[in-house]
# Entry
Amino acid sequence: MSAQPKDLSWPASLQSLQPLRAVDLDEVMAIETVAYSHPWTRGNFIDSLAAGYAGFVMRDEQARLCAYFLAMQVIDEMHLLNITVIPERQGQGLARRMLDALGLLSRARGCHQIWLEVRESNVRARQLYDRYGFAQSGLRRNYYPADGGREDAILMTLRLTEPAA
# Structure
């Protein structure tokens, strides 16, 4: 399954989006390690790409990678696994544009919802997801590694369409 359906065309605001490829991983890892206290490993990204998960990167006008996401389709739902904006570009609407792209991709693939986990302590991300329309739908206790222990994850869901009856 290709990452981008053939009939999906990005609107002008998303034209800088490109499929995530193995050659992007050095740039992705540089961002991942400064953005998170417990970053994904290169192996996590390689395994995700090998499994055919949907991955996209956003580049700026100078072709520098500034944001990316990875998502896994599970039947008629999309699970957002990782979405990251380089720290110096956060707060500029890039995450919202990435979520727009994920929504377009998910709808094109017939998904009726997107779901994700977010660290309970990640207030900024939770606020973004709330504003975007995600709703809290559960809690995963001790889900994330944290300094000195584990941290709960908030499960959030965005309904795209009603499931077929």
Residues 1-6 have pLDDT under 50 and may be disordered. The first strand starts at residue 17 and ends at 19.
